[in-house]
Design goal:
By secondary structure, the chain is α/β, with parallel strands linked by helices. The strands form two sheets. Strands 2-1-3-5-6-4 form a six-stranded mixed β-sheet. A six-stranded parallel β-sheet has the order 9-8-7-10-11-12, sandwiched between helices. Helix 6 links the parallel strand 7 and strand 8. Helix 2 packs across helix 10. The longest helix is centred in the last third of the chain and has 17 residues. The protein is globular. Bound molecules: NADP nicotinamide-adenine-dinucleotide phosphate. NADP nicotinamide-adenine-dinucleotide phosphate binds next to helix 6 and helix 10. The site of NADP nicotinamide-adenine-dinucleotide phosphate has 24 residues, from helix 6 and helix 10.
């Protein structure tokens, strides 16, 4: 953006709310998209360290006619109480990561769902139809991903989590909508390693492996990875986690969360601007640039 665009009021504001937001790569992705399409979108992170201020910030963003904003940890659930509407998918998973201003009203959606699916296809060249998938973790990312995988026609989804009850909640929610395809397991249950080993695809949605948990694999002891299995880690920093290293050594097809990060952002950009930006060249180019950036940091 040129300074004169701000002065002449040609710049449109978008942003991210959460805590912390200081290490986010979202401004890089959105401001790159804005530059590519010359649409004048300026994306800024807004840290909210006191949850009591969430309502005031949302009101201020509306007053400023922000085009839209993303929501990250810890406000993906809480934000629902401060916006005017929410789509069916975001409602069924109980989490919003993208809010769009339409005719003066804020509408919430969850682009992690489409973002994950697009990234998975792009990065692995594979789909979920008829496959048996083990999803590790049962937090916000897991909710969106299990929903996405069910919508893609997976044969069976096994949700394995440290807290068994949280996996059961997702099982119930998904089975209500898609029939009996999901089953919950406790991470420490004796059967978990066999359930994970016998499937076609493993998706990690826990933070294990990320910055601060490096060298820790989310897999319980006794899991055997095999050639041809697909292993997707939603963690993107570091680019190669302990899980991805183990999977690569075992001959699995592997992919990291940088793709999901880019494609969920591209989906939000499309909602806010109406510009179709998900072409392979553009999203793939941003993904490559981000991989280079992360590789250096
Ligand atoms: P969350 O709601 O806090 O859920 C975290 C999940 O991980 C919970 O199920 C938790 O189990 C489990 N977990 C945490 N620490 C664990 C440990 N030491 N051992 C075993 N399980 C553990 O977080 P979230 O929003 O789902 O995000 C999770 C991760 O997904 C993030 O850290 C990030 O790396 C990744 N993510 C990536 C993208 C992307 O665009 N690439 C987007 C969203 C998230 P309990 O239920 O037992 O607590």
């Amino acid at each position: 953006m040129k300074l004169e665009d701000f002065v002449k009021g040609k710049a449109n504001l978008a942003g991210l709310i959460g805590n912390p937001v200081s290490h986010t790569f979202s401004p890089y992705i959105f401001n790159t998209l804005s530059k590519i399409f010359g649409c004048g979108l300026v994306y800024l992170p807004f840290g909210i360290d006191d949850p009591k201020r969430l309502g005031i910030v949302v009101k201020a963003l509306k007053e400023l006619s922000i085009v839209g904003f993303n929501v990250t940890i810890p406000y993906k659930q809480q934000i629902i109480g401060y916006i005017d509407g929410i789509d069916e998918e975001a409602e069924s998973i109980g989490a919003v990561n993208t809010v769009t201003l339409i005719d003066g009203r804020f509408y919430g959606t969850n682009t992690d769902i489409t973002g994950f699916i697009k990234a998975f296809h792009k990065q692995t060249g594979c789909g979920f139809g008829g496959k048996t998938v083990a999803v590790l973790g049962a937090g916000g990312a897991s909710r969106a991903i299990v929903q996405a995988i069910a919508g893609e026609g997976a044969g069976k989804i096994n949700i394995i989590n440290r807290t068994y009850d949280k996996a059961c909640e997702i099982e119930k929610q998904v089975n209500q909508r898609y029939g009996d395809i999901a089953e919950a397991f406790g991470l420490s249950s004796g059967i978990a390693p066999e359930i994970i080993s016998s499937g076609d695809i493993i998706v990690n949605t826990t933070p294990l492996g990320m910055h601060g948990f490096e060298d820790i694999s989310p897999l319980p002891d006794g899991v055997s990875l095999r050639k041809g299995m697909i292993v997707y880690d939603t963690v993107y920093r570091p680019l190669k986690t302990a899980l991805l290293n183990d999977a690569e050594s075992a001959g699995c097809i592997t992919a990291g969360g940088v793709g999901m990060l880019v494609y969920q952002a591209v989906a939000a950009f499309e909602l806010w601007t109406g510009i179709k930006a998900a072409s392979d060249d553009i999203a793939g180019g941003i993904m490559e640039a981000l991989i280079n950036e992360l590789g250096r940091s």
